[in-house]
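#lab-general

N.A. 3:47 PM
ok so I finally got the sequence cleaned up, no stray characters, all 101 residues accounted for. can someone with queue access submit it? mine expired

B.Y. 3:52 PM
send it over

N.A. 3:53 PM
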Amino acid sequence: MSIEELFPLQNRYGRFLVGLYLSRRRGERHLSVEELAQLLSMSPLTYRRIESGRSKISPQNFDTLTEVLDLDMDDLIELSRIARIKHINDISKSLSLNYPQ
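B.Y. 4:20 PM
back already:
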């Protein structure tokens, strides 16, 4: 499954949740930010921006991350669902004057 299928918009919620997941998986694999950035042919700062949710993930980098970190598609599908729900809730809040606070 591609990043476009899982997170078509890569909104801030999706980026944040995926970043947390990547950070956890990287730690489980005992890889440093520098090591993983090198595998992705990017600077550590650029990779940190992905883990912090400030940058989108390219399809090529997603494929590499999936392989290197052995990402679980079921986990990613669940994160995608959570991100969509949060996004829909925010849209509902902005459209409805009577949204419960």
